[in-house]
Amino acid sequence: MAKGKKKKLWIGILVAVVIVIVAAVFVVSEGQRQSEQEAAKKPIELELVYAYRNAQWNSAIEKTVEDFNQAYPDIHIDYTIHYENKVYENILNTLIARDEMGDIVQLKTPEAYVSAGILGTISKETIAEIGVTSAYGMNGYVYGVGAVNDTNGIIYNKAIFEKYDIPIPVTYQEFLDICSELRRLGITPVGVGGSDLWHMEYWVNHFFRSDILYLNNEWLYQCSKGEVSWMDEEVTSMLTHLQQLFSDGRVDRNWLSTPDGSLAYMMSEGEVAMIYNISSVCEEILRLNPDMELGWFYVPDEYGLIHVGENRDTFWSVTKECQEEEEKYQAAMTFLKFFYSEENYANVRDSITGFPTVREYADYEMNEIQAEITQAFEENTSHVTGYIGDENCPQGFESQMLAVIQDMLSGKKDISQAQAEIQALWEKCLAEEVDRS
């Protein structure tokens, strides 16, 4: 082959190779560009963890997430609801152990999680924009914002009370007498969702507040210092009142196997005359039976005094892990602003019979039972916010104590045995808390 022809052949081959290389580079570059575009289009993923309070709260959260995901296509929130019969804090401890706490989390008491280094802070700009009246702060930082406040009391069937001319009780003995009269009439006086351990805290905390905390709101703190004890006389009084309620057929005979979620249905069907629950359950009952007339009263103590339980135990927090990723953190702040926005918060507020935690939305048109609860809440000035399970209790104590009380009320232990076991649990949980620190 002539030199000129060879040279042309090599040049042709070289050009072909260059074209192939350029094409390959273009394909790779185009692939990278498409991958980058796809990555840019992929929404920021957040995990929201919350506790089942009742069907209305669950619906409100689900609708909030659905509306948020539509309004912010660059952010996607998945949610995990926990409605097992366990105390919510026990579930959270399991999630922490599995490193599955999520990004935005509902908490009752943020303090323990702050101390454990699990929570991030809520930005000052977010706090200023949402304007909440209830928040949890430590060392100048805010770690939780109140979602909603509520109260506990007796929800009763007005038709039954009016038919049999039953008055609202003035003392605790009168309340017991009303229960006995209803039982005589063949009506189950009080429904109790005792199969859900967390439901048991409603009645337990009522008596804890009425018999102990209203006289000494530092009782739990003093107990941690050994200045008071679960063996003391005031605890005996509290457990005695509980035992009186659960005796002589005053509560549903199947209370130990009844879930909290069944109580709204039982009320709507007239199967029980009363339930002791959080105020937001009223909306669930009325959705099941819109024609039902509900009433509300606080259970008085033996001297006729009312001690209103004011529940400030529903906070939104973000995890420290979320805060460490700037994009996720800003997305979480965007969700909080959306939750407290006027339109969305109105949906949450109207779904439950609770009290708004946003100043701007405090005044709104209420239905009959909402107005009755609000009036009773505001008229009775003795409010107690502490409870078994708050920041003064060691982790793990609440659930174990409630289990002991279940045993006592079902006849497996007497009061003195229950007190001794509760004191031993308190000391054990305190020691475990010291070991963890």
Cα distance spanning the termini: 87 Å
Q: CATH H level of the largest domain: which superfamily?
A: Periplasmic binding protein-like II
Q: Give me the secondary-structure category.
A: alpha/beta
* Mean pLDDT score: 87
What is Rg? Answer: 29 Å
CATH topology of the largest domain: D-Maltodextrin-Binding Protein, domain 2
The number of helical runs is 18
Helix share, percent: 40-55%
Q: Strand tally, please?
A: 12
Which regions are unreliable across 5 or more consecutive residues at pLDDT < 50?
Answer: none
Q: What global shape is seen?
A: globular
Q: Helix and strand string, N-terminal first?
A: HEHEHEHHEEEHHEHHHHEHEEEHHHHEHH
Number of spatially distinct domains: 2
Largest sheet: 6 strands, mixed
CATH class of the largest domain: Alpha Beta
* β-strand amount: 5-15%
Architecture overview:
With 437 residues, the protein is an alpha/beta fold. The longest helix is centred in the first third of the chain and has 39 residues, at 3-41. Strand 4 (135-138) and strand 5 (141-146) form a beta hairpin. The strands form two sheets. The protein has a six-stranded mixed beta sheet, sandwiched between helices. Strands 6, 7, 8, 9, 10 and 12 form a six-stranded mixed beta sheet that branches. The protein folds into two domains: 44-149 and 313-362, 3-Layer(aba) Sandwich (D-Maltodextrin-Binding Protein, domain 2), CATH 3.40.190.10; 151-311 and 372-436, Periplasmic binding protein-like II (D-Maltodextrin-Binding Protein, domain 2, 3-Layer(aba) Sandwich). The model has no long low-confidence stretch (mean pLDDT 87). It is built from 18 helices and twelve strands. Helix 2 packs antiparallel against helix 15, helix 8 (197-213) crosses helix 10 (233-245) and helix 8 (197-213) packs across helix 17.
